[in-house]
Amino acid sequence: MPGATVDAQGHPIPEEYQVGAEQLAQLAGKLVDHLKIRTMPIGMKRFKSQEEFESVQGLRRPKAGRFHTTCQLVTQARIAGFTLGIGTENVRPGGNCGGVMGLDIPDEGCLNGEHMDGVWFENREAAKSHQDTMPRAPYDDGAWVGTVVSPLRSGRLDPPDIVLFYATPGQMILFVNGLQWKRYRRYDMTITGESACADSWGRALLTNDTSISVPCFAERRYGGVADDEMLVAMPPHEFARGVEGLAGLAKVGLRYPIMPWGPQADPAEGMAKSYG
């Protein structure tokens, strides 16, 4: 949760990782330098106060009467650099988009599998099981009035609840290596299938932990996610840890892009550079 002093495993968060908007803007620049990602790292923050929600600097709102998928709104932030405010009136009514963020509750036709029966699943049982196991941020009795997404470089969310960025598999594994640089832990990813935003920002908001996903069909069709892109969402302290680790890896020659050695060459010389 925002402002937490312990991580998802209950370990104290070092002071240097308890970062605000200014530090996150600097870290975003370092991430781009290290990984050469194609689009901007962004932050996401939910609000319970309408006044605070509407007072975010540079806030844009979708046009009245138009509905978007949340992946479309996220893409506008990471590509166009918009700071966008999202309310329940901006997302498809009764679907998973607002439900994954905890802004509303999906309707019965969504939750019982009816909407996806015969589309993504051959039968109602499979469609309902998909909904039953989907990670979603807590609804909290309707307390959330909206969510704002904004590029980290703008410094407009201080701090965001979570940080997100899109990367190729090669960039993603190096970032995970960065997360493990000073303190090893195993990172697991979940695959919901369709509605994979549940595995990224939904799971990160739910668990306050790093969540890696393979974006789904809808994210690629409507959100414009490229064929080679993956998505990671995490609390700010994990983002700070990962970027610090990338710098450590770079100092020992482990950088992106990864120079290919060649499948027919003896790897001994190359491995000797790292292992002696």
Brief sketch in words of this structure:
α3 links the parallel β2 and β3. This protein has one domain (15-258).
Description:
- By secondary structure, the protein is α+β, with helices and mostly antiparallel strands.
- Helices cover 35% and strands 12% of the residues.
- It has 11 helices and 7 strands.
- Strand 2, helix 3 and strand 3 form a beta-alpha-beta unit.
- Helix 7 packs across helix 10.
- The longest helix is centred in the C-terminal third of the chain and has 16 residues.
Key descriptive features of the protein:
276 residues, alpha+beta, 11 helices, 7 strands
Number of helices: 11
Report the sheet with the most strands, covering strand number, pairing sense and barrel closure. Answer: 7 strands, mixed
Given the helix and strand composition, which structural class is it?
Answer: alpha+beta
Mean pLDDT level = 94
End-to-end CA span: 43 Å
Shape verdict: globular
Strand content: 5-15%
Task: List how many beta strands DSSP finds.
Answer: 7
Q: What's the number of structural domains?
A: 1
In what order do the strands lie side by side in the largest sheet?
A: 2-3-4-1-5-7-6
Alpha carbon gyration radius: 19 Å
Low-confidence stretches: none
The helical percent reads: 25-40%
Q: SSE order, as H and E? A: HEHEHEHHHEEHHEHEHH
What is the secondary structure topology, with strand pairs?
Elements: H1 21-35, E1 42-47, H2 50-54, E2 59-60, H3 70-80, E3 83-86, H4 96-101, H5 108-111, H6 124-132, E4 146-151, E5 162-167, H7 169-179, H8 201-207, E6 211-213, H9 217-221, E7 230-234, H10 236-251, H11 268-275
Parallel strand pairs: 2-3
Antiparallel strand pairs: 1-4, 1-5, 3-4, 5-7, 6-7
Helix pairs in contact: 1-10, 7-10
